[in-house]
Amino acid sequence: MSVRVRFAPSPTGYLHVGGLRTALYNYLFARHHGGKCILRIEDTDRTRFVENAQENLISSLSWAGIEFDESPDKGGDFGPYIQSERFDLYRKYAQELIENGNAYYAFDTAEELDAMRERQQKAGVAPKYDRSVMRNQYTLGPEETENLFKANAPFVVRLKVPLTGEIRFSDIIRGEVVVNGRDVDDQILLKSDGFPTYHLANVVDDHLMQISHVIRGEEWLPSTPKHVLLYDAFGWERPKFAHLPLLLNKDKTKLSKRQGSVAVEDYAGKGYFKEAFVNFIALLGWNPTADREIFSMQELIEFFSLEKVNKAGAVFDTQKLDWMNSQYLRALDLNDLAVRFKPLADEAGFSGFDNDYLAKVIGLLRERVNLLIEIPVFGNYMFEKPKEYDEAYVLKHWKDTTLELVKPLVELFKNAPNFEHQTTHDITMAYVESQGLKLKDVIHPLRLMITGKSVGAGMFETMEVLGKDECIERFNIFIDKKEKGEI
Ligand code: GLU
User: Given the CA of residue 220, which atom of ligand 1 is nearest to it?
Assistant: First the structure.
């Protein structure tokens, strides 16, 4: 059987990180098996329509590098499949189920349903449509049903769930799942506005689109017994199911907006590399080997297997995401990073630096930050002269004797044959030794004069990237201010 999988989001307005994980696993599974992965927009709930939701979804998916087959931008004839364009089809299949006795018409009003639930609640039983007493084609009989139709009475179509017996299906991740028919509601398939529910549209489409594996989040597990009944009712072969573990907050509660961003676009906006983000998402509930965490998309495809996906919920740990990003920041090619960094530098107001210089700055600072976007803040002094000098640092490291100590050193720097870090290091070393001092006695003052800050990369490396003229200028500015008592 050839592998065909789908990602079937409802357009809520943004791509949820859990949705990205589902999309990614579908994509990895399809590519691993040389199969197809399609995108289907499940927009049957028209009351939840959100402007541009579909565009947002697609743009987040393509940012993450997930490609779909049978999509228009690949020049195909169809897709992404959009359920709201297929309503007639679902009505036709609902009709088929009525005809073969697996679904029925029900005419209950909202008030009647409320009263039923209230009765059940009082009696201490779980709320469930009670086919034997409510107003449906069985209790009303054919004549009354026909009359209601003629009178254009609103109706829904419900699935006729067997009242006894077990509903079984196997899940690749969870094994055998068994539920009692008694606990499954007579699910609405077609709503009174004629639109299908998620259940009907989802099953009809998975069948028509020849989906071999339904890979989706654990929150859909309670729907699967109903879907299984639908497949059986239509006489269709069931796909294989795999329900992915929940994503959790750090405190092990279900991942929620209240504890942090859940929209993929937020993470893109915060400056995470798509490679790092995808790598991080891929390991939420799955890891091919215990001894490794960094995988390219190609490697994820190569190693992916549903059998290795865990049942237990996976913690969405943003600290790990930061770490993951830092690993990519250290490993990616500097010229590539410079290209990615350019718009961030522009946005921070540091325009006009060429990519060569940006690459050097990134090379200098990338061990000290997790995200490229932090560089203009952490290392602002690589793009502008210090506007202020860290007061505590001045107090701690600038002694009465320091000015007279650094002035001759600045003179020596002026005459340096070049500004490579080894050269300035050696000059400084020889100078401090001649004064009977240690390197650290001048390193802090140098850092202060050049950067204004107490932390940064290696001092001589920083000076090398800034260059001789810039450094000498900064020394002079500081010395001048110090002499005038402005610092
Ligand atoms: N439309 C459902 C969602 O929003 C799809 C569930 C499924 O994959 O069957 O996640």
Answer: 6
**Each residue's pLDDT tens digit, 444-453:** 999 999 999 9
Q: What is the mean pLDDT of residues 193-211?
A: 96
What CATH number does domain 385-487 carry, 1.10.10.350, 3.40.50.300, 1.10.460.10, 3.30.870.10? Answer: 1.10.10.350
What is the residue type of 3? V
What's the CATH number for 89-190?
3.90.800.10
Annotate 102-140 with DSSP letters as a single string: SEEEE---HHHHHHHHHHHHHTT------TTTSSBHHHH
Q: What is the pLDDT of residue 73?
A: 52
Give, in order, the Cα–Cα distances in Å from 448 to each of 251, 407, 428: 42, 14, 16
Domain 1-75+245-331, CATH: 3.40.50.620
Tell which atom from ligand 1 comes closest to the C-alpha of 215: 8
Which class for 318: exposed (0-12), middle (13-18), buried (19 or more C-beta within 10 A)? middle
Distance (Å) from CA 93 to ligand 1 centroid: 20
The angle, 0 to 180 degrees and rounded to 10, between the axes of the packed helices 198-208 and 87-99 is 100
Statement: the pTM of the whole predicted model exceeds 0.70:
yes
Query: Which of 220, 231, 241, 246 most suits a substitution to test ligand 1, by most atoms within 8 Å of the C-beta?
Result: 220
Q: Which of 122, 257, 387, 440 is catalytic?
A: 257
Active site residue 481: no
Residues 377-412 have pLDDT tens digits of 999 999 999 999 999 999 999 999 999 999 999 999
Query: Can you tell me which atom of ligand 1 is nearest the CA of 7?
Result: 8
Q: How many residues does the chain have?
A: 487
Q: How far is the CA of 390 from the centre of ligand 1 (A)?
A: 53
Q: How far is the CA of 21 from the centre of ligand 1 (A)?
A: 13
